[in-house]
Design the sequence.
């Protein structure tokens, strides 16, 4: 490790060892881990004026995420469990055609416990384990320049001096500026065909109530995923609800690009639920203050064949590398896996950025591409989602589609939770063998290219369909 100046120094010629761009969950988790490498001069920068604590959502941390966090710092898992609710069962509710009828309920135990926790609570847990002097907020990244001769990268910010580092980690989310600078021909975030409203609200006694350990999903038919509702306890007497509906294009109340407390967003989701006759869900939304409701379009990013540039001096992590549809619930968990594997690579190979990037990409790119494409098959991408799912039917034509979906989901959960073992697949398994997953990724790459003309990517102008 190098003996550079401390992170609090302001000299413009200072060169950090590691600069993490982005203070979300993945970036902060890595920052916690790097704190265990003595002598490594590191800094995390965040675009917002302070680290966010409210997003109206939760994350589910399964076995793979818990293992990654435990390896970064056991205190993370210890503190996450203080705030989390433990989910042990899942319930799928299918609404009857007659609103007065009873829903069909399919209940099953989870293969492993799922810790559900507010995004903001997770953020606080991580931030409290990072030295304040290692974090600078209010740094809106504009790109970077590589000085190959000097062996470092200068990251540029709006109205702030450049910051130089030997290794720059772009953890700046689905709209990653680092990724855009690294891959200028990349088409940007891809619209997944859904609009989404969600919130967490404090409901005293909810975390100890009967059914608080149930992950509940509601939809209007077994095969139609045009409307989905999620009801999940988020721990510490917080209740999470989410309403997701198909949409031909991203559109937001009163223009803009979504966010928290958008004027009119509550009335908008209430109107849609009213049209469906879902009075019970309306009661949950009605009880939530509009300022706590987040209105979003659902986006992902196309899988990349490589996550590094400039000889390994710049790498991607988390949503910047592999933003995915949230259906499988793997967004935060894969970011924690990234942080763990990046920590291991730095620990093993510092100060060799090329070796760090090679080990990191070997561990992460293929696995993340599998999960991204699996998630895309659960989304509402015109033509592409059905094409992705058709691969599995062709692989096992004798298995009915409904049975195959259930089998795949269970097998994927087993594979995901086997982390960090068998990173490329479960040998001998029906759907997740290394051979099947390799063929799956190849099929998805071809299908994505074939359907590219029908996919919508993030526009530069504001949209309104209030």
Sequence:
């Amino acid at each position: 490790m190098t003996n550079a100046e401390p992170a609090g120094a302001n000299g413009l010629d200072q060169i950090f060892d590691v600069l993490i761009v982005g203070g979300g969950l993945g970036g902060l988790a890595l920052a916690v881990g790097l704190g265990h490498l003595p002598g490594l001069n590191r800094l995390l920068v965040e675009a917002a004026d302070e680290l966010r604590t409210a997003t109206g959502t939760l994350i589910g941390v399964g076995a793979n995420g818990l293992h990654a966090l435990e390896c970064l710092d056991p205190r993370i898992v210890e503190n996450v469990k203080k705030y989390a609710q433990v989910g042990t069962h899942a319930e799928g509710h299918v609404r009857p055609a007659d609103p007065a009828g009873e829903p069909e309920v399919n209940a099953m135990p989870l293969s492993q416990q799922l810790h559900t926790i507010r995004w903001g609570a997770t953020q606080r847990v991580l931030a409290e384990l990072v030295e304040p002097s290692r974090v600078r907020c209010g740094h809106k990244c504009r790109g970077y320049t590589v000085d190959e001769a000097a062996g470092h990268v200068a990251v540029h910010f709006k109205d702030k001096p450049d910051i130089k580092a030997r290794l720059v980690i772009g953890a700046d989310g689905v709209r990653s500026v680092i990724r855009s600078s690294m891959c200028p021909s990349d088409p940007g975030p891809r619209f997944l065909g859904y609009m989404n409203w969600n919130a967490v609200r404090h409901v005293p006694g909810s975390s100890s109530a009967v059914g608080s350990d149930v992950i509940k999903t509601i939809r209007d038919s077994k095969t139609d995923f045009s409307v989905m509702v999620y009801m999940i306890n988020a721990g510490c007497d917080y209740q999470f609800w989410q309403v997701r509906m198909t949409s031909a294009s991203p559109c937001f109340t009163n223009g803009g690009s979504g966010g928290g407390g958008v004027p009119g967003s509550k009335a908008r989701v209430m109107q849609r639920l009213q049209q469906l006759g879902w009075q019970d869900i309306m009661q949950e939304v009605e009880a939530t203050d509009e300022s706590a409701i987040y209105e979003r379009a659902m986006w992902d990013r196309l899988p990349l064949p490589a996550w590094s540039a400039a000889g390994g001096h710049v790498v991607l992590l988390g949503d910047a590398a592999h933003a995915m549809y949230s259906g499988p619930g793997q967004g935060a968990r894969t970011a924690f896996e990234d942080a763990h594997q990046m920590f291991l690579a730095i620990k093993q190979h510092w100060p060799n950025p090329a070796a760090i990037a090679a080990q990191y990409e070997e561990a992460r790119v293929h696995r993340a591409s599998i999960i991204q494409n699996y998630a895309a098959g659960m989304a509402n991408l015109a033509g592409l989602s059905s094409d992705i799912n058709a691969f599995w039917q062709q692989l096992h034509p004798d298995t009915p589609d409904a049975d195959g979906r259930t089998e795949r989901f269970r097998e994927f959960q087993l594979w995901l939770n086997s982390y960090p073992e068998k990173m490329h697949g479960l040998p001998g398994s029906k759907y997740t063998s290394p051979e099947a997953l390799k063929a799956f990724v190849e099929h998805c790459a071809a299908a994505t290219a074939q359907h590219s003309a029908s996919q919508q990517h993030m526009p530069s102008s504001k949209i309104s369909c209030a």
User: Anything to note?
Assistant: Residues 1-10, 460-466 have pLDDT under 50 and may be disordered. The chain has 13 helices and 17 strands.
